[in-house]
Every structure is written in C-alpha cells, then in structure tokens.
Amino acid sequence: MDRESSARHLPPDWLVRNLRTPRTPLKRAAMARAAVGMTAPLAIGLALGQTAFGALASMGALNAVIGDTADAYRLRVLNIAVPQLTGAVGVVLGSLVHDGGWAAVAALTGVALVSGMISTIGAVASASGLLLLLNAVIGAGLPLPGPWWAAPLLMTGGGLLVLLLALLAWPLRAGVPERASVAAAYRSVADLLAAGSDPDRYTAARFEVTKALNRSYDLLLAHRARHHARNRELTRLIAQLNAINPVAEAAPTVGLTGGALPPEVPAAVHRLADAVASGTGGGQPLHLPAPTTEAARAVDHALVHAAEVVANPDVDPWGLDYRTGGAGAVSVRATRAARGVVLSAGSWRYGLRLALCIGLAQALVSLVPVPRSYWIALTITFVLKPDFGSVFSRALLRALGTVAGLVVAATVLAGVPRGWWDVPVLLVLAPLIPALTPRGYGYQTAAITPAILLLSDVLNQEGTDLLLPRLLDSLLGCAIVLVAGYLLWPESWHTRAGHRLSQAVADTAAYVEAAFGEDSDASARTRMRRRLYRDLSTVRTEFQRALTEPPPTGRRAAAWWPLVVAVERIVDATTAARIRVHHGAPPPPVAETRQLAEELRELAECLRGGAETLPALPARPALLSDSVLEPVRREVTAARSIAERN
Predict the structure, then answer these.
(1) What does the alpha-carbon distance between residue 579 and residue 586 come to, in Å, rounded to a whole number?
(2) Of 476, 523, 579, 604, which residue has the fewest beta carbons closer than 10 angstroms?
(3) CB contact at 8 A, 547 and 19
(4) How far is 366 from 373, CA to CA, in rounded Å?
(5) Is 303 in contact with 200 (CB distance < 8 Å)?
C-alpha cells in the first residue's frame, strides 16, 4: 500500500484535536457542594470556639470534593463513602506513629505498599488507597487536636456532609443519570451515522461511541450486580443499551462503502435518545426513507429493532442477556479483585514503587530536620499514584501547579486576617477544585494547594512562614519520584501500549475467525467486538499518557498510533463484512478467513517482540478480489505496512 493511501489512518489535524484536554462544562452543582461542604464545618468550628476541629472537618470535606465526580447517585455513595472509611483508618494508623521516628518510616512504607496495590483494582479502590495513604501521612506528620478518635471522626464527618449534599436531589431525580447515560450512547451512535464516509469525522465519532457505551455499561451493570435483574427500570435501560449495539455495528458498512445515509436516519436516532432520556418510551413512527443500498438496509433493520425496544415498556428481566460487558455479583467481583491484586506482578510493582518512594521520604525527614516534612510524602502520594497517568508529566505539573497555588496562598495568608475572614476566602477557593480538576492535573494542584494551606494555617498558625518550606518539600518530593519511582524502574522507559496493542491485534484475529465461524452466535460476536473496542480505548489512553514521556517512550508511542487506528478499522471492516453476509452476500471460504487471522497473529507476534524497528512480515497470497473479505484484507495490509515502516 502506498504512503498516500495509508496516510488516511492518521489525520494530523484530527490527532492534534483529540490529544487536547477536552473542554468540559462547569459542574455548577459540584462547585456549590464544594463551597458549602468545605466552608460550613470551618464556620461551625469558629462559632463553637473549636476552630481546629472545624479545619479537620473541612479537610475531610476536601477529600470528598476530590472524589465527587460521578453523575449517578449510587456511584456517588461508593466514590465518596468508601474512601472516607479507608481515610479514617489511615488517620488512626498515622496518629499511632506520630513522631515515631523509624517506626513511622516502617508503618508508612507498609501503608504505601497496600495503597499502591489496591489502587490497581478500579476507580473506587484507587480513591480509597489514595485517602488511606494521604491521611496516614497527615496523621503521622501533623499534631492533630483532641483524642485519637477525634480526627478520623471529624474528617469522616466532613466527607459525609459533602455526600449528603450530593444526594439531596436523589428522591427527585432517581434514574435520571442512568437514562441520560443511555441517551448519550444513542446520540453518539447518531453522530457516527451522520459522519458517513468522512474519515476524520467517522474516526472521532467511533471513539465517542466507544466511550459512551463503556460509561453506560459500567454504570448500569454496576447496579445490576446489586439488583440481580429484579429492577425493571434498570432491566429496561440495559435492553435499550443492548439494542443500540446492532446500529453501531451496522455503521461501518456505511463508512466503508463510501456512501452516506439520509439525514432522517441520524435524526431518528436522536428522537430515540430523547425518548430514552425522558423515560416515556417511543411509540412514534420513525419516518425512515426506504433503504436503497445494502448498508442502508442493514442500518434500517437494526434501527427498527432499537425503536421497538425503546417503545416496549415491559422487558422480561430474566430473559435479558446481561453478558455484554460487566462482571457478576459483588462477592464474586470482590473475590476476583482480591485474588488479582495478590497474584498480579503489576500490582506488586506499583505498590513497591510507591512504598520505596514513601520510605525514602520518611527516612530522609527522620535523618534531616525538615520543618513540616509530611508535605514531601503528600507530594509523592499524589504524583506516584499508578493509575493517574504519566509519572514524568505529573511530577512537572505538580511543581508548576504548586508554584501557582503558592502564589494564591501567599496573597491569602499575607492579606487576610485569621478568623472569620477565612470563611469567605474558603468559600471562593473551594469551588475552584471541581471547576479546574477536569482541565488537568496541574490545574487541580493549583486549586487544591491554597485551600489545603489555608486549612493547615488554621491548625498550625504559621502564616506565610510555611510557603517556602512547602515549595521546597514539593520539589524534593517530585525529585524523589523522578529518581526512585521513575528512573530506577526500566519499565518506566517503555510504554505499556505496545504489549496491550499486540494483545488487541491477537484478539482481532480471533474476532475475524469468530465472525464467520459456524459455532458463534450474534451475542457472542457482539461481546467480543465490545471487548475489543474497550481494549483499544485503553490502548489509546496509554498512548496519550506515553506521549508525555521523554524519548524514547514518547517517540515510540507516536509511531504506534497509526497502527491503533488501523486495527480499529480492521474490526470495523470485519463487522461490515459479517453484516453483508447476514444480508445475503456469499460467505468467505474458510481458507480466506484463516489466512487473514494468521496474518494478524504474525503482526501481533512482531509487536509483542517490542523491537524498535519491526522486521518485514512474511508475504501472503492475495485473496479473491470479489470476496466479502476484500475490505478486511486492505485494512490488514495497511496495518502490516505501517508496522513494517515503524
């Protein structure tokens, strides 16, 4: 394949647009919760003459504000309540070794190991591990007021106040976030259908479909693990989400045939999305034009089925196929997660990296007198969390964000007298945290720093004297992370995207065989395709992280990106070929399917080798030009060509 034809796999302007931090609308409700939740405890403490207790409760509220990111109310309970409990355990453990010298070093190193390992389980476990270590560091480094139980009780109470505020509208808006999530999946599919054969729009829209379906399935199937298919509203939403999958599967036939659907088709999907969001169901005719092409007939057939599911108010909860993503019951998932953490080499590596850095930091402050040295370990905790992205870029962003935050903190601490004036200042600073967090890690650090320094000043009464030590501690923590948590670990120099991409290519080979096998059913193919796109979405995330690393990791990630797009096009082409066969095209010979699958496995093996320049792949005889697999063959050839050039 020539260079011009393969260049369509990497539209430069599209790549630049999609690597930017997305512009997200302000979460005004979250900003209001942050303002009230962080300010009210401090105001109550001032009113009762217990300012230090109020500051501790506000710190707990700050932890909850950081975790207040979910739209669904049930997920808010998990995202906020569970980390608060592990945070309380961390405060107790840290308080027990306060000023304990080497005992504190050993205790915090052990807590860091556990925190790093459980952070690999998932989002809730990651936040729980973060607060476990964060609060343990605070308890070990700060003299907390009151008896041993006061600090964990107050900090947990502050976090639960934010949770209460986050759940106030639940009785009035029950089910709204779930319906909105499914409706968003429908709208993303409508945008995919509207993209037609435009490669830039189609590729971007396909990514959005993958993300929207992932979010919806994660949200709904998490509820399903609790309700066990007894909730009819939840069952109906899962059925509606399953129904949009065939429409998404039919979309590649439009893009690969070079045609375009009438505008009435994506408009009909938008109407179905509105019906899902309102919860009223459909029932209105779609008013679709008569299909004139094979691709249009495939979309029409899938869309009519989706409309029937949306319009049906009653779905049999026991006859629904739940297996399109998700796991089983909570106990099964918990057991599986615990076993995975203990047996996973990756979990141990992450935990050991975090433990090494925390141990070095605590040993350093035990040997060298550093004022308020807990800030070094706090910096390491935030920067080296294994699931937060590139360690190298986070260390730099942490330093820059701390400098920006210290400028704001210096203005506040120098110009605002202690006492009741802290309340309106915190009322202004608190909403900045949820407002700036979606923009990136550096913005989040700049927002959190002045708020936590203000609360620390309420506890310690140090004023501007703590600013320079905080800057030095942050820089020292970043330096420890870069040396002990990055440079000393060879795996940090190589992106994990290569290994995951090779596995995705091997899974694509299995999908090509399953798509035309005699013993595979439609639901199995759908599950396989969904897993493939989810895996490729993970690869894309790893690619974005790796691009921020210094060479050779960043350079290698950039070279691999066209191959990620090419593999996705192979999955699309295979799905389109399967739909053509379903609508009457002659199925391909078994030998052709095996040949393409073998070529993909050869590509996967070359990628798994991890060579900087891949060797030339073995040549294969061409397929018949009129085969239904001809578009798949072209995409496989393009992928092999990209791999050989890299």
Answers:
(1) 11
(2) 523
(3) yes
(4) 9
(5) no
CA-CA-CA-CA torsion sign (523, 525, 530, 535): positive
**Phi, then psi, of 553 in degrees rounded to 5:** -60, -50
Contact present, 560 and 501 (Cβ < 8 Å): yes
Closest CA to 366 of 103, 610, 562: 103
Amino acid at 539: V
How far apart are the C-alpha atoms of 291 and 298, rounded to whole Å? 9
pLDDT number for residue 491: 64
- Cα→Cα distances 616→390, 405, 501, 606, Å: 32, 52, 18, 9
Which amino acid type is present at position 511?
Y
290: buried, middle or exposed (CB in 10 Å: 19+, 13-18, 0-12)? exposed
Q: For residue 413, what are the contacts with CB-CB under 8 A and spacing of at least 6?
A: 453, 454, 457, 463, 464, 467
Please compute, for residue 33, the number of CA atoms within 13 A of its CA located in the half-sphere on the CB side. 29
The residue type at 233: E
Instruction: For residue 391, give both structure tokens.
Output: 């360690």
First-residue to last-residue Cα distance in the chain: 15
Give the pLDDT mean for 441-452: 86
Residue 332 to residue 514: CA distance in whole angstroms: 28
Contact by Cβ (8 Å): 521, 608: no
Radius of gyration of the chain (CA): 27
Q: Is 354 helix (H, G, I), strand (E, B) or coil?
A: helix
Look up residue 244 and give its two tokens.
Answer: 């949009």
Helices (H), ranges, 228-263: 232-256
For the segment 188-200, what is each residue's pLDDT rounded down to a tens digit?
999 988 887 677 7
User: Angle at which helices 150-166 and 73-96 pack, to 10 degrees?
Assistant: 170
Contacts 24+ apart (CB under 8 A), 96-104: 96/139, 96/148, 97/140, 98/139, 98/140, 98/141, 98/142, 98/143, 98/144, 100/140, 101/366, 102/366, 104/140, 104/362, 104/366
Q: How far apart are CA 114 and CA 133, in angstroms?
A: 9
Q: How far apart are CA 576 and CA 586, in angstroms?
A: 13
Residue 193 phi/psi, 5° resolution?
-65, -35
* Identity at 25, one-letter amino acid code: P
Quick check: 294 and 253 in contact, CB under 8 A?
yes
Amino acid at 613: T
195 within 8 A of 258, measured Cβ to Cβ: no
Single-letter residue type at 65: V
> Using one digit for the tens of pLDDT, what is the confidence trace for 347-387?
888 888 889 999 999 888 888 776 656 788 888 888 876 55
- Amino acid identity for residue 20 in this structure: R
Alpha helices in 196-231 (DSSP H): 199-227
Q: Alpha-carbon distance 262 to 259, whole Å?
A: 10
pLDDT digits (tens, 9 = 90+) for 474-495: 888 888 988 888 888 766 655 5
Amino acid present at 285 = P
How would you classify residue 585: left for phi > 0, otherwise alpha for psi between -120 and 50, otherwise beta? Answer: beta
**Is residue 251 within 8 Å of residue 189, measured between CB atoms?**
yes
Higher-pLDDT residue of 541, 21: 541
